[in-house]
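Predict the 3D structure for this chain.
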Amino acid sequence: MKPAVLQCSWMRGLGLATFLGIGFGAGGGTAQVPALRAPFPIEGWRYSLLDGDLHMHECIQDRCKPGSRVSYRLTVPDRAITLDVFKDTRRRIEAELRTRLGPGALLQTEEPTAGETGPVRILRSRRMEMRADGTRISTLSTLFIGRAMGVDLMSSSIDPSVVDANAQTFLALIVSSDAL
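Done. Predicted structure below.
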């Protein structure tokens, strides 16, 4: 699969949440997101900043599967985002994705989950896009809501076996910054 195809999928998905006004931490209050150095220097990943606050990393070496992507947006922590709110947001994004994928494509989703690790609430959802051309893209969306900040993180790849590990690589760096 060509990386440009994966990029198109990612850009559509990320722009979709913004377009629908359902991105987390983007609305309402006047609170400031804590400063966090970005990009994190990660060997084997190419960095770009999109829309002023979306940190996009594309894998360029074998260990993370070339073309895989991890993006994150730092947000104001909103403890009012419950599992039900997260599920509703995912349903709206998935409905729009189904429309955009077109005929012959499928979108399989897993039921979103929630958990807590100390003061951090973790909301997750998974999906698999299966396009008419046979391309499959696995995506893990995770929202971390901490005391000082939230992190809306997505990891995506044509190789589902690297999605979780790639997400963990970036989460470990964010957590080590003591931002959450």
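The helical segments are 3-20, 83-101, 163-176.
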